Each structure stands twice: as structure tokens, then as C-alpha cells.
């Protein structure tokens, strides 16, 4: 059963989100739409490229019912998928219930001149191009599809329990010394990967420096063993924006596997908690805001939030099977595109020791946050260090608390037959879509 919004133009006053009146169409206001099932870096890459083509990005999100009719069952429900889009740094506004076949009245109502999509063909349940109407109107632009990652790929990893996506060493991979293929192919992959990290470490415009990116270099035992005090060393990958005067340094860490609404809401709650701390210490008082504008040319928030991301083998040590489903670079890119963080540290230790926190290039954190851990059977407390430093804080249960990698895999396995059929249907549609793409290319 479809909603009143699916596949048709809403009546006046019945649009799914404001504005209810038609907006003036702007060349710089770009529309992109999709299912956005799972928050993987391919979705973020599409939004980043689309955002660079204008100054505002409107993101249409299809309903669960429309996706089921045209593609198969979703893994994440609409509310969870909207939360993920809203968290993307490059998204200006999300529009739930956007039609599966992109309609010009929807695009124009929200003030968008152009629709952007990857260079792959997307078809509806009848096998017709979902973008045929905007293409015919000359209002369609193509960006490059991110290779090597898709919702279909991730579901396949879960169903087949593969481990071929694991990264052994962040540093060696980025140096082109490790990975699949010959030396030349590994080098090319490393160059492309570093460029992608740099691209994702941009601000809301997608054009200027944004988050900093670091890797932590320490022993394997220090990454796994909570008893080892090791400062290690920090290597900067991307310069980005560092902490500003007066900002509190805040640290969070995790696996962030299958980066979902559970992770996103945790990060949002951390930022919200620090905003409340900022309010208490007068951060938002008018004279202090004016002072920041005079001194720095911009205003900024009261906290600088750093996300530490664990290596694949560290997560696998605790979770077993073929976890993490996403490798460290895929997880890192997901965190990097999130508007609630300001820096990322690859290869962070599972237990942040006092030595590790004290060696931070940003300065020793003022706060370390963590939420309740329900998926890993811990045999010790990983946060004894920050607790001794009296900087440990918790984020209590929230609306998406249950949404983690284990929950998502369980959803897949409970409906295994339906998702396997979706995989087969996707392959069959892919053959047809490739033929359509070939015909379009030949006619150009």
C-alpha cells in the first residue's frame, strides 16, 4: 500500500515537508534522490558531487512501500534512512516520500533546477528509466558512481559471511604496499583512496577544508589490551580545520560498522550535550559571538568532536564471524561525512588509555563519551583511563539505540529469502540497465 505522496503530485498544503508553496527555481539548488538504504560512502559520494554543482542540496528519499514495489524490501525503515541523510554534511534538506520515478513537479516545487544521479541507470518495476522525465526536460546531470560499494555489496557480505574486504594495515594500504592486485594496481588504489578521504574531509560546501584526519600508530597489543599504557604517535593524513580557541576537546570511539541511525543519533546526542555545556558557560552570549566573528571571521560551536575508529582485526577479535561488515576505510568515510564530527582518527585503540589521550595532537580531551555497549560481550571496562581522568560521560538510551550492526544483520538473516531474491532481481535488472546505458552512449 502506497502513501498519499508516492508516485503523484501532492495537493496544495499536503507536501511531505515544508515549504507548502512552490519555491522559486534556482540554478544552484540541486535535487538528488534515492533509497539510501544503509549509510555507505557511495551515497555520501553522490551527495558530495551533487553539492559541488550548486550551493544547496535537496535529497529526496523514497518510501519503504515504493522501494518494495520497485526494488525489494528495505533493510532500514524510512525514519532511519531520513536520519542518515539529515546527518550528511552536504545535505541541505531531506524530502521523505519522494517518488521512485523522479517527477518534475516535485523537483520544481522544492526550487531545484537540476537533478543529479550517478552514471548507472536506475529503472522502475516496469524496467523504465527512473529519470526519463527530467532527462527529456534537459534537467539531468550525471556524476561518477563510487565504485566498489553498494547496498547490494553489503547485503552480499552478510549473506555469504565473507572477509575479503578486511584491511590489514591502514598505513601499508595507503602506501600502496598492501591489498589486491600487482604493485601498480595497489599504488593506483592507494592514490584514489587518499583522494577520496581528502574529498570527504571538506566542509558543507564540499569545496573547502573540513574535518582533520589522522591515523594512530601503536602496537597491536596496545590496540587490543586495556592494561597497556602506550602513547603511540599520530600521523596527519588531512590538514582540515583544527580546534578553535575556547572549544572543548571531545573524544568518542567505536567500530561504527554499517554506520546507522544508532551511531548517528549517538553522535548527535554528544554534540547536543556539549551545546548544553556551552550554554552553561556562556558560549552563546552575544558579545562572545561577536568577539569570535571579529577574531576568526566566523562563529563556531563550543566543542570539537573527534571520532576514533578501530581496525578491522580489533573488531573481529571481539565480534568474530565476518565482522566488521564494512572495512575501516568504508567505516571511516561514513563517519567523516557526518556533520556531527570535526576529526577522525583511524586505527584508534579499543581502550583509550591515559597515555593515548594525553598524547592527542589536539590537546588532552575535556570529555570522553560512550553509549551503552550491547553487541560486544566485554570482559573488562575499556574506559578505565578516562574514568580515572574524570572526563568520562555517557549518552543514555535514545530512539535508535537498538540499531547497530548486529541488529541490521539480524534483519537480513530473518528475511534471508526475500533479500536473496532482491540480490537476484538486482543482477537481472543490472543486465537490462547496462543495455539501456549502452544505447544512450551510442546515441550521444
Break the fold down into its secondary structure elements and pairings.
Layout (H helix, E strand, L loop, with lengths): L25 E9 L6 H12 L3 E6 L2 H7 L7 H10 L5 E4 L7 H6 L2 E7 L13 H5 L3 E4 L7 H10 L9 H5 L8 H18 L11 E6 L2 H5 L8 E6 L9 E7 L6 H20 L5 H11 L6 E7 L2 H8 L8 H9 L6 E4 L7 H5 L8 E4 L13 H5 L3 E3 L10 H10 L1 H28 L1
Parallel strand pairs: 1-2, 1-4, 2-3, 4-5, 6-10, 8-9, 8-11, 9-10, 11-12
Antiparallel strand pairs: 6-7
Search tags:
single chain; 444 residues; Rossmann fold; 2 domains; seven-stranded mixed sheet; five-stranded parallel sheet; 17 helices; 12 strands; 39% helix; globular
Largest beta-sheet details: 7 strands, mixed
**Integer-rounded radius of gyration:** 22 Å
Please report which band the strand proportion falls in: under 5%, 5-15%, 15-25%, 25-35%, 35-45% or over 45%: 15-25%
CATH superfamily of the largest domain: HUPs
Q: How many domains would you count in the coordinates?
A: 2
Number of helices: 17
Order of helices and strands: EHEHHEHEHEHHHEHEEHHEHHEHEHEHH
Descriptive report:
The chain is α/β, with parallel strands linked by helices. It folds into two domains: 26-149 and 423-443, Rossmann fold (3-Layer(aba) Sandwich); 170-403, 3-Layer(aba) Sandwich (Rossmann fold), CATH 3.40.50. It has 17 helices and twelve strands. α5 (132-136) links the parallel β4 and β5. It is globular. The two termini are 39 Å apart. Mean pLDDT is 89; it is low at 431-439.
